[in-house]
Target: Zinc-finger of mitochondrial splicing suppressor 51-domain-containing protein
Amino acid sequence: MLTQVPRRATRLLLAHSGRPSACLARSLPQSSLSSPLCGASYTSSRTFLSWFKSKPKDSPFAPHKTSGKDKTPVLSQDDLFHPFSKSPFPAIRARGEAIRQLAPCPVCAGEHNHGLHSHHGHETKAVSFECPDCGWPTHCSEEHWAKDKEHQKYCARLREVNEDEHDLRSGRRMREFELPGPQDSEAAISFANWDVFWYTREFPSMDSERSRRHASKILTYPITIGSVLHQFSNLTLSNQRLTPEGSRSLAALRTNLHVPPGAPETPEAAVTKPQMRIFILGARAESSLPPHVWEQLCMLFPSALFHLYFIGPQVSLPKPASEVNKMPKSSEAPAQSSTVATSESSSSSPNAKETTSEAAAASEQQPPTDPKEEKPVYLPNVYEPPTPAPIARLKRTRSSIEQYGVPSYTVPYTAQLTITGMQANYSEVHAQFQETFDPYTDCFFLFSPGLGFPSPNSVNEATGEPLLQVASPTEWGPVLPQLLATKCPIFVTGFSPADVERDVKSLSHAPDVAGEFDWVVTPGPNAFLSEKWEVADFDPRVMVKTNWGIWGIRGKRREVRERSGFLGLNL
Ligand SMILES: [Zn+2]
Ligand SMILES: [Zn+2]
Model:
């Protein structure tokens, strides 16, 4: 997915069917992808793993959100269900429109597929009838809706998503986005599951499933990373999620993440330590998470320093300074005031947490557009993923293009956290890091990279079939061998059991990858997944959960290097 077109509708459809490989990809109902909404200007729409589907503009309360957090909500908690076409929020109405254009009626499609000849008889019509129980456009007509017994399997979940989307925009105080400050050094954090994590990290209590879904969605990226790396990780030798090789890799990293046993975990202990470098490759939505959400990762490790690198063609970059300056603001602070307040405050500042829900709602995925252009209210999530909207320019944000040679920025957010974003394929910048990798300080995370999905750009010349992305020169083909050569651990997530399985299987046929790695973390569920269902606009029956599963590998150490003690650890 280090490509311009990393994830496509095909992936989601495959995930849904659970069937592997490229043959299905080619049998995609093209009609559903060739609607007017999928024209050139829509080639970049992936909100499948995106944050929330609104922009501040969409909702009347948003522009004033930080000014008074207890003001009257637009929607009350018993008024969260609205059919898409009747939603008070333009973004939700627009999403309904998008689905009507894209999704085929499943009953028509079934009749179509069972017919003897596809050219005769039934035409698959688009969905235009809204199910009264979930509010989503689901069938071409009430008749086909009534006929479809299968819909019951999806209806309750779809209704849940409908209400979640309205709740997010309801204007209520989103306590689940009020993130806690630094951890009490006496209190240990548990990573058994979200509940004990939130409890031991002193989050506000998540007293509804809905709150859990909202909070887990925004926290899944930083806490997935933290839960893997932390000494109290739930991935252990005894539950066989960690391998002996993995145990050595993590022990190496933990020498710099934690303090020696018995010593207090304090910021002072970080002074003499090297920065931990976490390379998040193929980053998209995660690169547009507000920095104070990423700070939650740092707070799990009070004695460590972090440098996060978001690298990928779809990394979100700051708004251009020229655009920021045009904003009607007092001239002194060339950025939005609320966000600047966040960035300038220390990690413990109460201001930091208040902008979370605003940022969450604002981080809709949008390709960068000319500021004068009218932005579409909603971009359907079916086609090709967009580059997230530009992120806020913080006061100390500086361009790094001179340093890395690609569009990039670096921001020293706090003393503990530095963030760099590079809008480039990783293989373009690998050479700059190649000599510096160190298994004691560096690791890689790939969130739903789609290794096992067919490349949209590269075909096998012998067979004419698309190459899998893991072996494709335009996607992960050159990257994985480079990562394995570093001997630093590589952690990978997937959005469903089928997605994880597909990616893992793809490794066994990839040149310079098959046979060249050791397992670090065995494939399996991730306790820190997003609990929110993500629904595909091209077929609302397709639903996945961000970071459902996780696994990890590392370049194989050859015998002679092992003997000489590559890590120098006696574990
Ligand atoms: Zn129909
Ligand atoms: Zn329904």
User: Anything to note?
Assistant: The CA atoms of residues 222 and 297 lie 5 Å apart. The radius of gyration is 23 Å. The first strand starts at residue 129 and ends at 130. Residues 9-28+176-317+389-563 form one domain.
